[in-house]
Amino acid sequence: MATPINRQTEMTLVQAVTDALRTKLTDDETTLVLGEDVGKNGGVFRATDGLQEEFGEDRIIDTPLSEAGIVGTSIGLAVNGFKPIVEIQFLGFIYPAYEQIMTHVSRIRMRTMGRYGVPMVIRAPYGAGIRAPEIHSDSTEALFTSMPGLKVVCPSTPYDAKGLLIAAIEDPDPVLFLESMRSYRAFKEPVPSEAYTIEIGKANCITEGQDVTLIAWGAMVQVAQKAATEAATRGISCEVIDLRTLYPLDRETISASVQKTGRAVIIHEAQATGGLGNDLLALINDTSFLYLRAPVARVTGFDVPVPLFALEDHYIPTPTRVLEAIQRTVDF
Amino acid sequence: MATPINRQTEMTLVQAVTDALRTKLTDDETTLVLGEDVGKNGGVFRATDGLQEEFGEDRIIDTPLSEAGIVGTSIGLAVNGFKPIVEIQFLGFIYPAYEQIMTHVSRIRMRTMGRYGVPMVIRAPYGAGIRAPEIHSDSTEALFTSMPGLKVVCPSTPYDAKGLLIAAIEDPDPVLFLESMRSYRAFKEPVPSEAYTIEIGKANCITEGQDVTLIAWGAMVQVAQKAATEAATRGISCEVIDLRTLYPLDRETISASVQKTGRAVIIHEAQATGGLGNDLLALINDTSFLYLRAPVARVTGFDVPVPLFALEDHYIPTPTRVLEAIQRTVDF
Amino acid sequence: METEFPIYRILDDAGQVTDTSKTDLLTKDLSLALFTHMNRIRTFDRKAINLQRQGRLGTYAPFEGQEAAQVGSAYALQDKDWVFPTYRDHGATLTFGADMVRTFLYWNGRVEGCVATDELHIFPPAVPIATQIPHAVGAAWAEKRKGSTQVAVAYFGDGATSEGDFHEGMNFASVFQAPVILFNQNNGYAISVPIQKQMHSETIAQKALAYGMPSVRIDGNDVFAVYFTMQKALERARSGGGPTLIEAVTWRFGAHTTADDPSKYRDQERSRDRVDPLERLEAFMKEQGFYDEQEIETIRSRHQEEVEAAVKTMESFPPPDVNDLFDHTFATLPDDLVRQKTDYLTARGN
Amino acid sequence: METEFPIYRILDDAGQVTDTSKTDLLTKDLSLALFTHMNRIRTFDRKAINLQRQGRLGTYAPFEGQEAAQVGSAYALQDKDWVFPTYRDHGATLTFGADMVRTFLYWNGRVEGCVATDELHIFPPAVPIATQIPHAVGAAWAEKRKGSTQVAVAYFGDGATSEGDFHEGMNFASVFQAPVILFNQNNGYAISVPIQKQMHSETIAQKALAYGMPSVRIDGNDVFAVYFTMQKALERARSGGGPTLIEAVTWRFGAHTTADDPSKYRDQERSRDRVDPLERLEAFMKEQGFYDEQEIETIRSRHQEEVEAAVKTMESFPPPDVNDLFDHTFATLPDDLVRQKTDYLTARGN
Ligand SMILES: Cc1ncc(C[n+]2csc(CCOP(=O)(O)OP(=O)(O)O)c2C)c(N)n1
Ligand SMILES: Cc1ncc(C[n+]2csc(CCOP(=O)(O)OP(=O)(O)O)c2C)c(N)n1
Ligand SMILES: [Mg+2]
Ligand SMILES: [Mg+2]
């Protein structure tokens, strides 16, 4: 099938996910999509919409309601020639599969000295901000970035979503692919029709600036950008880094930026304690200590369970809170 | 039962755990011990040895091999008048219960606005260094310190073990109580026969020093102390802090120490990425930025799965590695 | 081993009595009481869907079609029993005595909606599937330890039986002979996944065989079958006979939630052909002469009023209190959390 | 539903044939082959315990008493099948073809011991209980997708049936009709916990009823019963008939592991009274005239030599390579991990 080069379509992030899945389902027969309601229903967010019609029930598989079963069975499929692309309906429902991911998905390559790998992608919508029911809004990425043997990726735009998802599917190692629900339909942008990849492990400096480095991912990138725009009106020039890959971290891009600006504000939805922000902070401590003109600031969720949605706007970092942190950092 | 005051017995850490359990089983009828092999067998490390004989099968309960079942059922017991003290056989086997801990144990108080609390203690041996089989040597404390609504405690001495465990059992909120296997029988010390508590949330400055603050917990406290002794011969004066409580962190003790010494080395068995060291680093960044004369150093496991035991000595931080970090920090 | 699991029913689809051994028990009082609850919760349910459509409520999980299962089971309980519902069981909790205003609040993302009325032991709805099953077992076990005759009920769906927590809860219930009722509403679907893809077993009831636990399969749309089966299981539990699994075969008429489009995965027209549990009960009542138009009309309008009043109260409820974001994380907040709270409130000018 | 689960056996305790329909199949060749494997793994097992006592091996999990179950099941497999063992199933994996030196290495904490020989598909032993069950289901499902006739076997104990992963694996196996054998060795104990405290069901076999899966309960100490039952299940799986649960009732003579003291929880004297599966087979062979003292002696000393040689090779194996601590975490190590490795090795003077 000859794909026209450079054709582009306006897509939302969730459409770009579907497009990436379709691309890989077409060109790699070993790929399978497994999950709850991914078939006829096309997934609760429609990320797999139309795929079962196109690729059949044999490749787009509605599983029982059983996260450990899905992931555990996919391990067996993965070591025996297939590439399972698993959808976990919401990140808050991945915990029943935690053991399988922790002791097997991430360790099988090490435990077999490379004889078996687990080329599995686990896709999971995450994050708050869409007035979802309880436990549907967790952003517990740090539970996975801290798991040796697993990569974690999180796109913030439709373009990145397609390129990163294809890269994740092609990766010989397991990748957790986090999709911000708030970003799913937040905006459209042109996405090339052909296959392309975005390298896992590389951050994206989306706005250059001189005074402060803002680091964010997923839905928080927009929050950071808004704060940066506002900061500009105050004469503060922010460099905005979209992390894209949460593990492994892009040490070069981050340290280069912080060494230039001398200041950093990290923004994430997860709570402060145990958040990925602390890994970034440690990276900056290790690489850029002498460049720092102010403590690294973190704007995060609070150290409380993600609340029911009536209070979620108080929980999620806002441009205002980011701006306050920028100002504090600059004023230090 | 009149307990003689100030009587002391030489005990190992694991004996102190048993003693604390016996103390609370005696004075609080709502306490129950649940776990795999905790009954006749007295636990695989003998932490519950003799308790079933003393308190009966009704209070010291051998459960099915089912961590989610143990924790899930204990939630029901806890909200309905009992204080379950759960033994998870090794921290590496807690993951099947991760969902129950993550979405229920830690959230029920918040979700019911305080109507129901979960006064549960989960005890788990953790850590490497005893040539144990695979998956028996994890130290994934950060998966729990990052969970809002849960406290995490880790004693490094028999005295602390008894006082902290009693405090944990008396706490109205759930506490994960981590017991270093390497410390279980490492040494004995006098432990008072009567009940006493050590406040949760307070660190213990066990050695005062001027040049560098060493922060450690569990088995790493001894490693830190050895390094401190060695450093002293080089004329470097180390302050050694035994963290005792891993969540909530003792901000005052840590920041006061680092503000005095201007340098910090954090030691833990878990891997660097996502380790609790990063929370400590963030705390120091937030409180003591201007006092720091060198980047905070971390001596940790590597970002790899805990290896099978033939390689574990390379994985676990050693006094030598700590000493190198101390020297690097002082020389910075 | 009891291994045949025919569907037990007292009324047939048309409301005719099929188990005549029960005829004497099917009194007017009982019929009317059950009808009243079923009509009340249906009124609530329809209103909630309506409010959601108008943007006055968050995503909502309707239970229309499952009223007999929920009312029949909850009505058999005693006040001091424990109820562990899912997100679809507010019909049961309302019947048991949950506050209607708080039930609405729950669906508006208000944590106040998680807190049960007064002395009732109703857990907040379990959202992670099947996780409430071990909780119910533990609470029931606690009652047994106390020597009381109270029981716990875990509500769960057909899809929930696939989760490990279902299995571990069933096993604990049987090993410790906890006085718990495992009340399954088999509505044929877990969101879009039909039961044939969920399991290879013919019935859910037979799953109890794995645990040496008594079980029964009933017509969950026959409120009498539900009520009397539940009663029997409760008696067994209260008298030390241990747990029972009840499979109540039912049907959800509407969407999985208001965010769901069932026409993606099933023919909604044909779905609507099923016999409505309320209509079935009405047919029975009419046949027996228990159905007084005027009386029924009074009940209906009473429920309309009650629901409207509850909506009003819900909508004039004090706005969410940001303190609640922090204050219930621990019995006593750690210093650092106090600091986070203070910083946040101070910056917001509080 | 098949609901009675009598224990199927071909030989009785004394080695007398009870299922005479099988007599013709109980040939000398088969007897000797099974005997050979059983004797071989027992020799290995006893040596391993010995080495552990001398501090030449780490904590070790012995399987004495379970040789018939492990040999009978593994001997029925084809080379290209998949095996998912636990920490106690190296009797099965050795029979299937695992390397003896590597098996020793495993118990010395060497990751090399996790890597199967050549083309054999043997997963590293599952230490977290029951987690291997879904893996086996997935691997089997993959074979089915490829249109092959290969199967996967999951080995697991009685205690494992309590975990959620057992349940989820069983359900997937049945829903997707995976060609997998769920081979349970019910040795009566999970460490110290007797099966009566582990479950309320009379048998493990009956747990298959929950999944509409065929199952059978057999005397796991009768190597013929194990072998022929396994064969039948394998044939079913290979010909598209889906999964089978086999409950092989057996007994562990020794400790749970060398770190365990069974006298804490059971009478080891009485435990030793059980009929030894090897002795039972020997009795049969003697009765049939299959037992040639000299031949047997040759086999025994061959195994002694093999095991001694393996120990020697194990003990002269190259020392652990610190590179292996890092190198297999990912197919390509991330920069930061390379840095961690280099820093560490440099500081150590490498
Ligand atoms: C652990 C977990 N996984 C997935 C979900 C998403 N989810 C919500 S409801 C549902 C289907 C539940 O089906 P069933 O148990 O039959 O109950 P019903 O909704 O039909 O009442 C799913 C998959 C969840 N809430 N929890
Ligand atoms: C998830 C998990 N929990 C606990 C343990 C500790 N443990 C190791 S073996 C064992 C008993 C297993 O019993 P069974 O399944 O009957 O197998 P057997 O040891 O008898 O062969 C336990 C509890 C573990 N390895 N994994
Ligand atoms: Mg359902
Ligand atoms: Mg066993």
UniProtKB/TrEMBL annotation, chains A, B:
<dbReference type="InterPro" id="IPR009014">
    <property type="entry name" value="Transketo_C/PFOR_II"/>
</dbReference>
<dbReference type="InterPro" id="IPR033248">
    <property type="entry name" value="Transketolase_C"/>
</dbReference>
<feature type="domain" description="Transketolase-like pyrimidine-binding">
    <location>
        <begin position="11"/>
        <end position="186"/>
    </location>
</feature>
<dbReference type="GO" id="GO:0016491">
    <property type="term" value="F:oxidoreductase activity"/>
</dbReference>
<keyword id="KW-0560">Oxidoreductase</keyword>
<keyword id="KW-0786">Thiamine pyrophosphate</keyword>
<dbReference type="InterPro" id="IPR029061">
    <property type="entry name" value="THDP-binding"/>
</dbReference>
<dbReference type="Pfam" id="PF02780">
    <property type="entry name" value="Transketolase_C"/>
</dbReference>
<dbReference type="Pfam" id="PF02779">
    <property type="entry name" value="Transket_pyr"/>
</dbReference>
<dbReference type="InterPro" id="IPR005475">
    <property type="entry name" value="Transketolase-like_Pyr-bd"/>
</dbReference>
<protein>
    <submittedName>
        <fullName>Transketolase central region</fullName>
    </submittedName>
</protein>
TrEMBL record, chains C, D:
<dbReference type="Pfam" id="PF00676">
    <property type="entry name" value="E1_dh"/>
</dbReference>
<comment type="function">
    <text>The pyruvate dehydrogenase complex catalyzes the overall conversion of pyruvate to acetyl-CoA and CO(2). It contains multiple copies of three enzymatic components: pyruvate dehydrogenase (E1), dihydrolipoamide acetyltransferase (E2) and lipoamide dehydrogenase (E3).</text>
</comment>
<keyword id="KW-0670">Pyruvate</keyword>
<dbReference type="InterPro" id="IPR050771">
    <property type="entry name" value="Alpha-ketoacid_DH_E1_comp"/>
</dbReference>
<dbReference type="InterPro" id="IPR029061">
    <property type="entry name" value="THDP-binding"/>
</dbReference>
<feature type="domain" description="Dehydrogenase E1 component">
    <location>
        <begin position="41"/>
        <end position="321"/>
    </location>
</feature>
<protein>
    <recommendedName>
        <fullName>Pyruvate dehydrogenase E1 component subunit alpha</fullName>
        <ecNumber>1.2.4.1</ecNumber>
    </recommendedName>
</protein>
<dbReference type="GO" id="GO:0004739">
    <property type="term" value="F:pyruvate dehydrogenase (acetyl-transferring) activity"/>
</dbReference>
<comment type="subunit">
    <text>Heterodimer of an alpha and a beta chain.</text>
</comment>
<keyword id="KW-0786">Thiamine pyrophosphate</keyword>
<dbReference type="GO" id="GO:0009083">
    <property type="term" value="P:branched-chain amino acid catabolic process"/>
</dbReference>
<dbReference type="InterPro" id="IPR001017">
    <property type="entry name" value="DH_E1"/>
</dbReference>
<keyword id="KW-0560">Oxidoreductase</keyword>
<dbReference type="InterPro" id="IPR017596">
    <property type="entry name" value="PdhA/BkdA"/>
</dbReference>
